[in-house]
Amino acid sequence: MSVATQPVLTEARLTTRRVARTFSLACRLLPRELRDDVYLLYLVFRTLDDLVDERCPDAAERVAAVAAWAGDEPCPRTREVSILDQLASRHPVPRDALADFCAGMRHDLAGGVLRTEADVDVYCYQVAGTVGVVMAAILGSRDFEVARPAAAALGMAMQRTNILRDVDEDLEAGRVYLAQRTVARFGGSFAPGNREGLLRDQIARADRLYDRGCAGIPLLSHGRRAVSAAAGMYREILRQIEREGYGASGGRAVVARPRKLLIAARRGVLAR
Fold first, then answer.
1. Strand pairing partners for 141?
2. Which of 85, 89, 221, 228 sits in a 20 to 30 Å window from 250, CA-based?
3. Residue 21: what pLDDT?
């Protein structure tokens, strides 16, 4: 890591610790020689996601720059492109996954609607399954073509978990990431106290993705303990939603830090 990029690396480390506490805990289990590259990768994805969520004036341009990089086309030297160039010099970064991520960002910029569960699956792959795919490429695997769909499934499971955890916050911001047809099938409302059936359905879908994703962890060359810990801690959010009565009182389901640490320790031991 050159001196010129040290401030960016410092920001990447701090950003992960500040806004992704669960992920940050898992990162501590990564091999030291890969940890900083994972932080840098997270900074790329997080920056673009925040720019889009906050409707920043340059969001579309920054997303377009990464999309052009992913297509091996001339592109502006944005910070994200510079980081990706660094990562690609050390790892076989799958550019098609970055292109798919940018498609998800464009969906959000356009205010796209998710009508069916298939739409939700596509969206979850674009904005999070792709992260799992690129992560798997950085960590390495014995057979990437086999590991890739499992990594995508794990990212999708985590995104579906985020959607359920943040459903009330998203509603306040005017965003809905649940399938319109599924919501209609469960009565057309997911207000607190009226969402148990819907959440049971959605949790089951997420759990099936976790099962598929976790089955691929043994294929990773490095970071199995970290990925297993992250999966366990994220999946526990679903169990917390269940314990709290499926959103009976609304608000975000939060897993206490001691429980997170216990789960991370257990999963880390099992994944060795």
1. 220
2. 228
3. 84
